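Bench log, entry 3. Co-assembly request; chain sequences pasted below exactly as received.
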Amino acid sequence: MNKSQLIDALATRFEGNKKAAAHALESVLDTITREVAKGEKVAITGFGSFEKRVREARWVRNPATGARMKSKKTNVPKFSAGAELKAIVSGAKKLPARAAARPVAVATRTAAAAKKTATKSASAAKKTVTKAAPAKKAPAKKAPAKKAPAKKAPAKKAPAKKAPAKKAPAKKAPAKKAPAKKAPAKKAPAKKAPAKKAPAKKAPAKKAPAKNAPAKKA
Amino acid sequence: MNKSQLIDALATRFEGNKKAAAHALESVLDTITREVAKGEKVAITGFGSFEKRVREARWVRNPATGARMKSKKTNVPKFSAGAELKAIVSGAKKLPARAAARPVAVATRTAAAAKKTATKSASAAKKTVTKAAPAKKAPAKKAPAKKAPAKKAPAKKAPAKKAPAKKAPAKKAPAKKAPAKKAPAKKAPAKKAPAKKAPAKKAPAKKAPAKNAPAKKA
DNA sequence: CGTCGATCAACTGACTCTTGTTCACAGTCT
DNA sequence: AGACTGTGAACAAGAGTCAGTTGATCGACG
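Structure output for the full assembly:
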């Protein structure tokens, strides 16, 4: 399915208006693109999250000649699917027939439509979201939501639980989002922060040697 | 950025109508989700493509206990970023100031909403406008400067002819259902052969314990 | 119709994937 | 608008999977 077909499919949710569908699609994509480009992770519950990932410089190989060359650090977009999307794609969960087919007030340009979608009309279709029965998802062993708080009491995992004082990545001061009430430094969007917790058993500085001399390990 | 914030950002493209923004977002995501769930690849030029990938059964390890267990075949969603998105995220390319500020026309339904919209849009516009850049980003073609990590192998260039170019694509028969309406037969975007390539050079013994015949069940 | 984006090849290293636990966020109710 | 509750998400760790890269070509997109 290419972009045109996607817009065509979307149009059914915009009263068949392809312009509105195209606009919606591009708005969403463009917004996500901009946010990701800014380095902001875009997390969409139930779908997944887009984020910018920093790829360190590394040695790559020209598949044609086999020559090794160093590619410098770059940023790449990364998408990780959310739990619900995975469940749906894997077939464990099914989507409702039509989540909210009726646009609330997205009447393209017809004032009449807006009039039609009076305040009360929304109450009908709007509320029903994916509140379906307790889907038994879990393709196999994956227990859905069994809390079972009782059993967790005795002897938890010995290893030191994650200390609240996380690593302090010197990345960048995360500019406060819209809601500034958040705790600072919580984010730490960096990938594997260096130094971590310094496990005594092994200290594989995996990042360090990677960039240096993959050709000659010794 | 969470979903709410994304909707808020989107609202600026829908005249501040958050409902319309939410609807647009959910429509797009839901449509993509459904298409992917059906197994149809959703390719959006310039952004990326979503597709369902079949993951073969394999032996996995429980990180806590270390026990080996067999995970059965499953489908997972996969997203691959497009060229433009990569370029933007990497900083090689800049987005135009505002793609299309004016939506087709989303009918706001009440004056109250309009008033709110106005207020919000003012603040929003303030920050967005500041980003106004000359844009006009000349199509830097496909080589936006950064793509030159190495200067063409000073002396490495292989002899007369490089690799033996293309070989006959003697892959497997395209036993694919190809639900696409207009999917060209030639394409045959079938996945990698499950059995992988079994070149004689590789010792079969090495592969044996790998995944297909993982020794014995614990 | 013109231009550009996506695909494919082989090899390798970076990254994903598993279960279980905890936390904070998201969604919904009041 | 505020608060509660459900739950998505991150972490751990080892092993295996797969994505990345250059260049040419086909087909998509405008």
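Residues 43, 45, 55-56, 58-61, 63-64, 66, 80, 129, 141-143, 152, 156-157, 161-162, 183, 186, 206, 210, 214 of chain A lie near DNA strand C (CB under 10 Å from a C1'). The first helix of chain A runs from residue 3 to 11.
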